[in-house]
Design brief:
By secondary structure, this protein is of the alpha/beta class. It has 16 helices and 11 strands.
């Protein structure tokens, strides 16, 4: 497609202990950080030759990527695997990187409020996730001895998935995958993960029409709000209904909330796709109080009913065509195409024709479909499921700032209504709620197996 002598190799190494508890989560991160630091000297020469490499931690393990010119890529991958299977932790590197990791965890309060509110929402909705306080509490247990003991255990039971995309034949892609697996088996005595151990992250399903979580921040003068309206499980039709609705409101959100009402410089909305679920999210960072911002977002959502009803067929079709054109736009770089393919594998959907499938569905939708979707999932206080995360600034402001940022309307907003479920304990909140089921693959990976191959990667795309 791109006619370039380049390859993208993506390898996911999944281990059941990678995110078992906060201590193991810290160990997984430190392993990836120390190993990449060890590789820096070698990778400098590789980068000069046009080959990049990275290893980073995830909730399920680590992902290794090698990209660039394909001519010497196999040699680079073999060298990385040699170092990986014989890796010895350097004490000086470990201590330096641990100090940096500790500083990053403790500096969460210094992050921008809109970023903090998104992290709090993630902590509330993910089935199992360790917050920064939990990770910091177990830092005393993070030692070089613990990391040395962790590495063989991590590789003792492992699952490998690989995507090779670019200037590569199917047989060469399979050879690359096989060399990685054989290296892990022979040098680290790695065993396959049991199917029952291949657990994936699931999302909490909200049951109340409005759940509110409030945190304070003493560093920044700005507050923030992050509203999520859950829209159920991902499916072709649901995906397109949500994306089309976001396409319709995108410019209006900016014009109304930022330009006209001047709520703040950071104002936006968009699709929230996470762990097989869908939702629409509104973000505002402002000097105004989150309760007031929430009211303005709700007013905007309410006013959209009239906008949708008044929209004629021509305008509706323009939005459909604009979204279809955006979806079908061909990637301009190989890296973008690789990311599309890898996303399908990493999310276990394997819908490599997603763009064409979803656009076909998009063009079958009508205005009434969007209105029904909007009413049920976003507008109706009886059927919708809303989570609002507020980060309230407790930083003292100058008198002029207080006068200019606080209005009579803002001061009159009540902190919560009688129907609000105020979240005071995250663990207790999640314990009372059901979980969304795991999203099943759009196409089963068995479909991609070559009938005459005795060995096969989980998925090979080249």
């Amino acid at each position: 497609e791109f006619l370039l002598p380049k390859n993208y190799i993506n390898i996911e190494l999944t281990s059941p202990i990678a995110y078992f508890d906060p201590h193991h989560a810290n160990l997984t991160y430190m392993f990836s950080a120390v190993f990449m630091d060890e590789l820096n000297e070698y990778l400098y020469d590789a980068e000069l030759a046009g080959i990049d490499c990275s290893l980073y931690a995830t909730f399920s393990g680590v992902i290794l990527t090698v990209s660039g010119y394909s001519d010497k890529q196999r040699e680079v991958l073999d060298k990385i695997m040699d170092k990986l299977t014989s890796f010895n932790v350097d004490a000086v590197r470990f201590q330096r990187l641990k100090e940096r990791f500790t500083k990053d965890l403790k500096n969460f309060e210094c992050e921008q409020p809109h970023h903090q509110s998104k992290i709090y929402a993630r902590n509330l909705l993910y089935e199992k996730i360790w917050n920064f306080d939990e990770l910091i509490d177990v830092l005393p247990d993070l030692s070089i001895e613990a990391l040395k003991n962790f590495i063989p255990t991590f590789f003792g039971s492992i699952h490998v998935e690989c995507l090779v995309y670019g200037n590569c034949t199917a047989s060469l892609a399979l050879s690359l995958y096989t060399s990685v697996v054989d290296k892990l088996k022979n040098d680290l005595n790695a065993k396959c993960v049991l199917p029952s151990q291949m657990t994936r992250m699931r999302e909490v399903e909200l049951t109340d029409s409005y759940s509110l979580y409030v945190r304070t921040n003493s560093i920044h003068k700005s507050s923030s709000i992050y509203n999520i309206y859950q829209c159920g499980m991902q499916s072709t039709k649901q995906n397109m209904l949500l994306e089309l609705f976001c396409q319709i409101i995108d410019e209006r959100v900016f014009t109304q909330l930022r330009t006209k009402e001047q709520l703040g410089y950071i104002v936006g909305s968009g699709v929230r796709s996470s762990n097989g679920t869908l939702g629409i999210a509104f973000t505002v960072q402002s000097d105004k109080k989150p309760e007031f911002l929430d009211k303005r977002i709700e007013n905007f959502i309410h006013d959209m009913a009239g906008t949708l009803e008044a929209m004629d067929k021509t305008e509706f079709n323009q939005h459909v065509e604009a979204l279809a054109k955006n979806i079908l736009e061909k990637p301009k770089r190989m890296s973008q195409r690789n990311s599309k393919y890898w996303s399908e594998i990493w999310n276990k959907q394997f819908n490599f024709d997603r763009d064409e499938v979803e656009v076909a569905c998009l063009k079958s939708l009508c205005k009434d479909d969007v209105i029904s979707f909007y009413t049920h999932h976003i507008a109706s206080t009886e059927s919708r499921k809303k989570l609002s995360c507020h980060v309230v600034s407790t930083c003292e402001k100058d008198a002029e700032e207080n006068d200019s940022s606080t209005t009579a309307e803002e001061l009159s907003v009540e902190k919560s209504s009688p129907d609000t479920h105020l979240i005071t304990n995250v663990t207790s909140f999640k314990a009372t709620l059901p979980l969304f089921p795991l999203l099943q693959p759009f196409v089963h990976p068995e479909v991609f197996k070559r009938p005459n191959s005795s060995k096969s990667a989980d998925v090979a795309e080249s």
